Amino acid sequence: MLREEDKKQIQAQLKDMKDPVRFVFFTQQMAGTCQYCIETETLLKELVEISELLSLKILNYITDKDDVKSLSIDKIPATAVQADKDAGIRFYGIPTGYEFAAFLQMILALSQGNSGLDDILKERLHQIQNPVHIQTFVTPTCPYCTRSAFTSYQFAMENSNIRADVVEISEFPHLAQKYGVMGVPKVVINESHSFEGALPETMFLEHIEIALKKE
Predict the structure, then answer these.
(1) Sheet of 78-82: strands edge to edge?
(2) The whole model's pTM is what?
(3) Which domain range does residue 13 map to?
(4) How far apart are CA 91 and CA 79, in angstroms?
């Protein structure tokens, strides 16, 4: 899927990786059961060939039930991205278009162990004690989605109570209907609160705090 030119650019983007990063990919290869599972697996396999610090573990969504449960995977294709531990970072669908940029940015941040957030935001995030489930709905053609996706990843890196799911919504139309996704990026927090648009990190965090107050 990746051209040689693309591979060289990705290698340059990831040249400052420090620690290993692993993709845990969930798939189901029976005919007609998973749109884009094969394509996503191919993309991940090509990515791990680019850097010796990247690795891939492929699991079956139907039979590997313990892993599905422990990583809270609820649809496929699904990719959990982990460094030395699981930071609650998930991508549902195939990361292409603008979202591929956020995907690479997240890999580098995880490998370096640095979210890139300022100390004030980190302190506010560290004060969150209750579970937070962020769903960020995106499309490959949305230039503004990259920011929202990466912000959710940054928050998950800073607090183990936060899980960040980025969902390529065109692959999951039932979720578009469920959550009323009329435009992207759309962020849903703990099923109880949502907003649209690419907000600065501080405003994004304020929405999380609002959602927690509702509970």
Answers:
(1) 54-60, 21-27, 78-82, 86-92, 162-168, 132-138, 186-189, 193-196
(2) 0.96
(3) 4-214
(4) 5
State how many domains the chain has. 1
Q: What is the C-alpha to C-alpha distance for residues 205 and 203, in angstroms, rounded to an integer?
A: 5
Q: Would you say residue 179 has pLDDT above 90?
A: yes
Rounded Cα distance, 178 and 49, in Å = 38
Whether 92 has a pLDDT exceeding 90, the answer reads yes
pLDDT at 77: 97
8 A C-beta contact, residue 164 and residue 88: yes
Q: From CA 45, how far away is CA 41, in angstroms rounded?
A: 6
Which of 67, 154, 141 lies closest to 105 in space, CA to CA?
154
Q: How far apart are CA 136 and CA 129, in angstroms?
A: 21
Written in H, E and C, the secondary structure of 114-127 is CCCCCHHHHHHHHC
| Cβ-contact 71, 86 below 8 angstroms | yes
From CA 209, how far away is CA 207, in angstroms rounded?
5
Residue 35 has pLDDT above 90, yes or no: no
pLDDT tens digits, one per residue of 93-150: 999 999 999 999 999 999 999 999 999 999 999 999 999 999 999 999 999 999 999 9
33 — pLDDT class (breaks 50, 70, 90): confident
Task: For residue 14, give the CATH number of its domain.
Answer: 3.40.30.80
